[in-house]
Amino acid sequence: MKRLRVRRATARGLDRKGADAESLAADLVIAAAALIGEHGPQGFSLREVARRAGVSEAAPYWHFAGKEALLAAVAEQGFINLAAAMAEARERSKDPRSQLRELGVAYVRFALAHPSHLRIMFGPEIPDKTAHPALHQAAERTFGLLLAAINEAQRAGDARAGNPFDLAVAAWAMVHGLSSLLIDGQLRDRVRGMREAQLLASRVTKLLEMGLVGR
Amino acid sequence: MKRLRVRRATARGLDRKGADAESLAADLVIAAAALIGEHGPQGFSLREVARRAGVSEAAPYWHFAGKEALLAAVAEQGFINLAAAMAEARERSKDPRSQLRELGVAYVRFALAHPSHLRIMFGPEIPDKTAHPALHQAAERTFGLLLAAINEAQRAGDARAGNPFDLAVAAWAMVHGLSSLLIDGQLRDRVRGMREAQLLASRVTKLLEMGLVGR
DNA sequence: ACCTGAACACCGTTCAAGT
DNA sequence: ACCTGAACACCGTTCAAGT
Fold it and tell me: Chain B interface, mutation test: which of A38, A147, A174, most B Cβ atoms within 10 Å?
């Protein structure tokens, strides 16, 4: 029994204490996230994850309903990480207008740094988030962060009046669309490299900003 | 031999004349597009496409290098259809500013009408479009339509000065992001139904328009 | 030139059986 | 409670063989 646990830990290439006390569920999520990061959403398989965790191919089914449930756990962690990055970005500036700009930059930066993760968070692998309440909640919380920033900007006169939901969707659509186009290589002909992508992001975001601010 | 052709035609549920003269390649693309439309990109398999076309599982490999090549053909057709819808939309209005608005509406409408098709056109199933020259060209041509509309709007004073590429990317990112969020169900809690989605699209697009026009 | 049949190495999922 | 081993029905791709 003890040998088995050790096999699991070394199979992941990890060597930290307390591996015995960990649940296999957490190990599987970690292995899944790593696998997605390496080979993309396409190259992901439940059997390979089990192999990396050092367990049989049937073992994951004790902890997750199936492949989609494991991916949902990975996606949930992704939203938690994105929300943390956005919260941190917001704290970097004082005035609401530049806070919004920082939020957008953080979003695109996260997308470029973790493209495969973003695909799992938004892609068709999980057709209905409401089937995974924890994931659904994490996604809602992330959007809530943006909505709060919009609200504050409106109160400070740094965003035009109007339905805050519309403004938030506009901002979200812009950064999400730009991230998707960059990740999917749609702009690869004319935008080379991460640095150029970030510059494009700030120029493009500014164009929307003018519409959102209204002056 | 003739019996075989007939079997192919009826297997697709079609009964048009001239089926004998058609190439299997075209049949496979049609069957693939239909399958994707029904079951989404996930439920697509090359074997099932072959079954629907009434041929053996190895037959497609004579016409396509593999699964990705067949998907690339489907995606190419998608870009051709999208470009046609955009060109038609543009002809509906005279002044450049409302032409841009019509382009955006057409994009979102296409996405909502053919969500699975859009995913193939942009998703990770085809990681590198340059590996499929015809697809790459069709995608470029579609973006070129948007770029031309931006250029014309700038000449008419209906769009602010500046790098037309930046303006085009902003517009593209906005409608693409909104389409993605709608398709992926990210707004399902607060936007119910196609009609409400279209209304949201026109409100949100207007917010960007103010930034693009600059007055 | 174009297609079939059989094969290989994978995959997700289930289920009896073990501890 | 938690995991294994074996099985089932799939999948993408290859390749000799047919016509």
Answer: A174
Å from B103 (CA) to C2 (C1')?
44
Tens-binned pLDDT, residue by residue, of chain B (215 aa): 333 333 454 434 432 223 332 699 999 999 999 999 999 999 999 999 999 999 999 999 999 999 999 999 999 999 999 999 999 999 999 999 999 999 999 999 999 999 999 999 999 999 999 999 999 999 999 999 999 999 999 999 999 999 999 999 999 999 999 999 999 999 999 999 999 999 999 999 999 999 888 76
Q: How many CB atoms within 10 Å of residue B155?
A: 10
Which nucleotide is nearest to B62 if distance is taken from CA to C1'?
C2
| Nearest alpha-carbon partner for B81 in B44, B106, B49 | B106
Note the CA–C1' distance, B57 to D15, in angstroms. 13
pLDDT at position A204 over 60? yes
pTM, two decimals, is 0.92
Count of CB atoms within 10 A of residue A103's CB? 23
Chain A nearest C-alpha distance from B124 (Å): 7
Does A170 contact B at CB distance below 8 Å?
Answer: yes
Reported for A146-152, long-range contacts at CB under 8 A and 24+ positions apart, including other chains, are A146/A86, A146/A103, A146/A171, A146/A172, A149/A90, A149/A96, A149/A99, A149/A100, A149/A103, A150/A100, A152/A96, A152/A99
- Give how far A110 is from chain B: nearest CA, Å: 16
Q: Which two tokens stand for residue B213?
A: 């026009």
In this structure, is the CB of residue A64 within 7 Å of any atom belonging to strand C?
A: no
| Residue B43: C-alpha distances to residues A111, B29, B46, B47, B125 (Å) | 26, 16, 10, 11, 13
> What tokens appear for A205 in the block?
């975001």
Tens of pLDDT, residue by residue over A156-180, are 999 999 999 999 999 999 999 999 9
Interface residue of B44, B191, B204 to substitute, partner A, most A CBs within 10 Å: B204
Asked if B124 and A204 come within 8 Å (Cβ–Cβ), the reply is no
The reply to whether A67 Cβ lies less than 7 angstroms from strand C is yes
Nucleotide D5: closest residue by CA–C1': A56
Burial of A42 (0-12, 13-18, 19+ CB in 10 A): middle
Q: How far is the CA of A20 from the C1' of C15 (A)?
A: 28
Q: How distant is the alpha carbon of residue A184 from its chain centre?
A: 16
Distance in angstroms (rounded) separating the CA atoms of residues B68 and B116: 15
